[in-house]
Amino acid sequence: MTSWFLLLLVFGWSSEDGPAPGVLLCGPQNLTLSGFAQSLLVTWEDHPSCSALRNPLVYHLTVSV
């Protein structure tokens, strides 16, 4: 159950109404989620358009238990 909530949270957070003119649409892709006992491992790749950014991307991940 927590896995589905986390997936919805990440996809809901990364989707927007669309970029403003001149803004690249950046976000996670190929997201995988695995868990064992009380541990969760989330991995993803950044969209290729993200490599054009000058500043590093920062993702905030919130897990509610």
From TrEMBL:
Top-level taxonomic group: Eukaryota
Keywords noted in UniProt: Signal
Signal peptide start-end: 1-15
Protein name (record): Uncharacterized protein
